[in-house]
Each structure stands twice: as structure tokens, then as C-alpha cells.
């Protein structure tokens, strides 16, 4: 699969490595331009290229958005129609500045991002796992219920299935938390599943306990 990755930091570059190792092709972008990503793509090998944000967006059958949430408005608003977009982002006011619609709990950070990316088929995922765990805890040899859980929330079941297969391909298990509004909320910082080292079986129990 062709995967665009916007954001080349802890999560973006870790996902790029894992996806290339799983035989996908990636195009990765940051805010400073492709020339600043030469070292990263050289290390990733032939299945990786660096591009602009627009090039990464257009390249991907799936596009990962992994940037500090406070910078979401810098992303282009066009070209997202029907794209499967994976939102790894979290809202941290100290880093991102205060966003009133999020402080009031009116909407989730994923819904905020989706408003900026009209037509995207957005799935919230990879936001509850620390990048060092993402690097090391995938194990495709294990049965799904024994693998570390990575949560998915979204309103498009087909898009969620595609993201789930990417998650399984890098050795984790996808656990569905529901629609973007409710599921997205249950994946936010401070919840019972956020940054917890849960297997898929444990995750299912944790979600039932908090339902
Ligand atoms: N770190 C974790 O373990 C972790 C875990 C789960 C979720 N998250 C969430 O995932 C997101 C990314 O976290 P991170 O730790 O990977 O961040 P990070 O290491 O600070 O990297 C951020 C990346 O985003 C890029 N970026 C910033 N603004 C951009 C823009 N307008 N267009 C394109 N690229 C832009 C930066 O590029 P430049 O350097 O060129 O500006 C940088 O490559 C955050 O929302 C974070 O809360 C992080």
C-alpha cells in the first residue's frame, strides 16, 4: 500500500520505518521541506521518499497526520476528499495553546481536525501508544488477542478495516472504540486506555468496564 506520512517526528518516523519493513511504500513530509528529510529517507531505503505535505497527501492511499495538534490549521484544506486519514494527534494545551472547542469538551481533537480536512475518512489511531513502545512492542508471531492493542475510532467502517489491517501488519492488534465522537473521546489523554500497555484481550475488558 502507498502511505503518506505528514509529520516526521517521533511517531511519523517510527511509523515510516515500521510500514517500510512491512513492505509498504511511504512518502514522508514535515513543515520545513523534503530537503530536511534526506537522512531519514536514506535510512528507510528504496521504498521511502520525502515530499511536500501536498505530495505526501496525494501519494497516500492512506495518509497519516502526526503533528503537534496546535499546528493543524497549517495543513491544506483541499485534496482530502475520500482519503483515508489516520489522526495520531493529541491535544496538550501546554504545547498546542488553548483551543476553546476542546477545552469545553464540545468536540474531540479528531473532530476538529476533520473539520479542517473536508471529505476525509478519518480514523483516530496510534495516539494512545508511546513511540518507544510503537517501535518495539509489535509482534506478528503472537495471536491477535495476545498482541499489544492499538485503538481505532472512526465513522467509516471500511476505512477502519484498512487501518486495522495496517496495524496487524506491523504486529499489533486493532481494537475498535466506536465512532469518532464517543470512541475518539475514550482515546484521549487521561482515559483508562491512554498510554496503557494492554493486550487486545485486556483492552476489550477495559473498554467494557468503562462503557
Ligand atoms: N511522541 C509520542 O510518543 C506520541 C504518541 C502518541 C501520539 N502522539 C501525538 O502525535 C503527534 C506527533 O507527535 P510526535 O511526538 O511525533 O511529534 P514531534 O516529534 O514533535 O514531530 C512533529 C512533526 O510534525 C511536523 N510538523 C509540524 N507542523 C507541521 C505542518 N504544519 N506540516 C507538516 N509537518 C508538520 C514537524 O516537522 P518540522 O520539524 O519540520 O516542523 C515534525 O516532523 C502529536 O499530536 C502527539 O501528541 C505522540
What does this structure look like?
With 211 residues, the chain is α/β, with parallel strands linked by helices. It is built from ten helices and eight strands. The protein is 37% helix and 18% strand. It is globular, with a radius of gyration of 16 Å. The model has no long low-confidence stretch (mean pLDDT 97). Bound molecules: NADP nicotinamide-adenine-dinucleotide phosphate. NADP nicotinamide-adenine-dinucleotide phosphate is lined by residues 6-12, 29-32, 53, 66-69, 71, 74-75, 88-90, 127, 129-131.
Low-confidence stretches: none
Count the strands? 8
If you average the pLDDT, what whole number results?
97
| CA radius of gyration | 16 Å
List the helices and strands and how they pair.
Elements: E1 2-6, H1 10-21, E2 25-29, H2 38-44, E3 48-50, H3 53-59, E4 62-65, E5 84-87, H4 93-96, H5 100-103, H6 109-116, E6 121-125, H7 131-136, E7 149-154, H8 157-169, E8 173-178, H9 180-186, H10 200-210
Parallel strand pairs: 1-2, 1-4, 2-3, 4-5, 5-6, 7-8
Antiparallel strand pairs: 6-7
Amino acid at each position: 500500500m502507498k502511505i503518506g506520512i505528514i509529520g516526521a517526528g517521533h511517531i511519523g518516523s517510527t511509523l515510516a520505518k515500521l510500514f517500510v519493513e512491512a513492505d509498504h511504500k511511504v512518502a514522508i513530509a514535515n513543515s520545513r521541506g523534503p530537503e530536511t528529510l534526506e537522512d531519514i529517507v536514506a535510512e528507510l531505503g528504496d521504498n521511502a521518499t520525502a515530499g511536500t505535505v501536498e505530495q505526501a497527501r496525494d501519494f497516500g492511499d492512506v495518509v497519516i497526520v502526526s503533528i503537534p495538534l496546535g499546528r493543524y490549521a497549517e495543513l491544506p484544506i483541499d485534496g482530502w476528499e475520500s482519503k483515508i486519514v489516520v489522526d495520531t494527534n493529541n491535544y496538550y494545551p501546554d504545547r498546542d495553546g488553548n483551543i476553546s472547542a476542546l477545552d469545553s469538551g464540545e468536540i474531540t481533537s479528531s473532530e476538529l481536525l476533520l473539520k479542517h480536512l473536508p471529505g476525509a475518512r478519518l480514523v483516530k489511531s496510534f495516539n494512545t501508544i508511546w513511540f518507544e513502545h510503537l517501535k518495539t512492542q509489535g509482534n506478528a508471531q503472537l495471536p491477535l488477542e495476545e498482541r499489544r492493542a492499538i485503538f481505532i475510532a472512526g465513522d467509516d467502517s471500511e476505512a477502519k478495516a484498512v487501518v486495522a489491517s495496517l496495524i496487524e501488519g506491523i504486529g499489533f492488534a486493532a481494537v475498535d472504540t466506536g465512532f469518532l465522537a464517543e470512541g475518539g473521546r475514550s482515546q484521549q489523554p487521561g482515559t483508562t486506555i491512554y498510554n496503557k500497555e494492554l493486550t487486545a484481550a485486556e483492552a476489550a475488558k477495559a473498554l467494557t468496564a468503562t462503557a
